[in-house]
Amino acid sequence: MEFTTEQLRSVAQLARLELSESDVELYSRNLTDIMGMVEQLSAADTEGVTPMAHPLDMTQRLRPDAVTESNQRETFQALAPDTEDGHYGVPRVIE
Amino acid sequence: MSAPDLNGWEVVIGLEVHVQLQTVSKIFSGASTAYGADPNTQACAIDLGMPGVLPVLNADAVRMAIKLGLAIDAEIAPRCVFARKHYFYPDLPKGYQISQYELPIVGLGKLDIDLDNGETKTIGITRAHLEEDAGKSVHEGFAGSGIDLNRAGTPLIEIVSEPDIGSAAEAVAYLKKLHSLVRYLEICDGNLQEGSFRCDANVSIRRPGDGFGTRTETKNLNSFRFVEKAINQEIERQIDVLESGGTITQETRLYNGATGVARAMRGKEEANDYRYFPDPDLLPVMTTESDIAAVRSTMPELPDAKRARFVSEFGLSDYDAGVLTSSRELADYYEAVLAAGAEPKMAANWVAGSLAAALNAEGVDIAESKVSPGQLAGLIARIDDNTISGKIAKDVFEAMWAEEGDADAIIDAKGLKQITDPDALGKIIDEVIANNPGQLAQYRGGKDKLFGFFVGQAMKATQGKANPAEVNKLLKEKLAE
Predict the structure, then answer these.
(1) Which of A60, A61, A75 is the mutation pick for testing B, counting most B CBs within 10 A?
(2) N or C, where is chain A less crowded by C-beta within 10 Å?
(3) Percent of chain B whose pLDDT exceeds 70
C-alpha cells in the first residue's frame, strides 16, 4: 500500500509536525515500507478473536469518588512559559 | 421562531447530548469538580497532562453511566474500552481527549417522548459513552487567550440519538425528557447555564422516500430555546440552498446564543481526523451482572412510571400527572402535600396552579418555595371542610407566600372564615334584596339573569366570605317568596 505524499502532509498537519520539503519523498517511501510490513498482519485469520485493547490481561481498577488533590497552582504555573491572572497564557485562539 | 414551511421536505435530526456527571472528583483524577473555583486551582498533574501521570477511573462515574443505561433500557457492555481522541487545542493539554470509541459502556437504548398532539414517539439511542471534558479558553481581557483547566477531566457522558427526530419541537421534547431523566437519576445537576447539559444537533433534509441528505452539525446549544431556534434556522437555510440549486456541505456550525446566528467553523477547527486508538494507560472496564444489579437496586422511580402511578393511584388526568412528574422535586413536593393529608385532585390543582405560578413569577425552584407542603395541605384542608371558599383560599395562599404564617393563623387573623350559618346569611340576603327593589321587580318580571347580580351583592356584603352554595340556595328561596 502506497503512503502518498499527500497523506503524509495531511498526517503531519494533524500531528502538528513540521515537514521540510526535502524530506517528503523519503518519509513517504519509509512509511510505505512500514505500512507494507504491517500489512502482513492482515493475512492472519482473526475470525472470532476479540480485539485486544491492552497487552495486559487485567481489568481496570476503579478509585472511589473522593477529592484527594489540593490546589498546587503556584507549583504548576512556575513551570509555565506564560501565565496571566491565574490562567495559562497562550497565543490568541479566536479571531 | 415558529417551525419553517417545509414545502414537502422531510427533516432528519440526531442529537448528541453531553451530560456532566455530578461526581465530587474528576473522572481520572482526585481533583475537585466544584463549579466556580478560582482558575486552575482544581487542575492537578493528571488534568494538566503532565508526563508520567496515570489516569485512574472514578467508580461513581461508571455507576452513573450504568444508571443512565438502565433508565433508557440499554444494554450495558460487559467490557468497555477507553480510547484516545486526538486533536490540538490549547484547552486540551494532553493533545488527546480520553473517550470511548468502538466499545462504549452503554449500547442501544430508547427514550419515549410526548408530542404536542398527545402521541408518544420512541426515539432510539445509539449509544452513550464516558469521556473527560476539556478546559475553558477565555479571551476577554487577555493579551492572548487565557486557559482555565478546572473543567478539564470533569466526567461527561455523551448520549447519541438515532436520526429519529423529525422537527425542532421533537428535539426539544427529547432534550427536556432526557434532562428530567438525568435529574431523576441524580447523575447530573442539569444546570444549563453552567454547561452541565449541552447539545450538538445533526440536521439534514430530504424528499420523503429518499436516502439521507448531507448533514451539518450545529454545536454549542446550551438552552432549550437555542436548540429550537438554531435547528429551525438550519432547516430553513438548507431548504433555501437546495431549492436554489445548491448543495449542502458537510460542516460544523457554531451557534452564538447572544446573536442568534450560526456560522460555519473553519476547516482547521473541524479537522475531524481524530486517530482514535485504545488508551494504553487504561485497561478494559469489566461490568458484571452483580455490578449492574447493585446499581439497579439504587434506581429511583422513573418519570414515566411515576406519571402512570399518579394517574392510577390518585385519579389524576394524564396531563396533570405529566406536569407534576416533570421534575422529581415537584413530584416529591406533591407527594409530601398528600402525605400531610390533602385530597389528591385538589392538591394537584394547587401545586400545578397557584404554587407553580408563584414559583414562576419569582423565577425560583420548588426547593425555595415559601409555602411548605405541610402548609399547603393545611390550606387545602380548610377548603375541604368548608372553612373558606376556593376564592378566599387564593388570598390565603398569597398571604402564606408572603410568609404571614399557616393557613389557620391567616384565616383567623384576617377573619376570612366562611359564613355558612343559614340564619346569619339569611339576614344578609334579606338586606340585599331590600336594598335593591328595582332589580327585584325586574327579576320577578322574568329577568332571570339578575340572579347573578344578587349573588354578587351577597358576596360583596360578606367580603367574599359567604359560602357560595348556601347563598345560591337561600337566594333561590327568598327571591321566589
Answers:
(1) A60
(2) C
(3) 98
Give the fold, CATH level 3, of B422-480. Answer: Arc Repressor Mutant, subunit A (1.10.10)
Which of B104, B158, B108, B101 lies closest to B132 in space, CA to CA?
A: B158
Number of other residues whose CB lies within 10 A of the CB of residue A40: 8
Residue B89 near chain A (CB below 8 Å) = yes
Cα distance between the two ends of chain B: 61
Per-residue confidence (pLDDT) for residue B311, from 0 to 100: 97
pLDDT tens digits, B52-77: 999 999 999 999 999 999 999 999 99
pLDDT per residue over A27-77, tens digit each? 999 999 999 999 999 999 999 998 888 888 889 999 999 999 999 999 999
- Whole-angstrom distance, CA of residue B431 vs CA of residue B60: 73
Cα dihedral B462, B467, B472, B475 sign: negative
Q: Are B369 and B359 in contact (CB under 8 A)?
A: yes
Q: Which residues lie closer than 8 Å to B175 by C-beta, 6 or more apart? A: B15, B17, B199, B224, B227
What does the block give as the cell for B481? 317568596
Give tens-digit pLDDT for A1-35: 788 999 999 889 888 899 999 999 999 999 999 99
Q: Could you tell me if A75 lies within 8 Å of chain B, comparing CB atoms?
A: no
- Compute the residue count for chain A: 95
Partner residue opposite B278 with nearest CB, options A53, A84, A94: A53
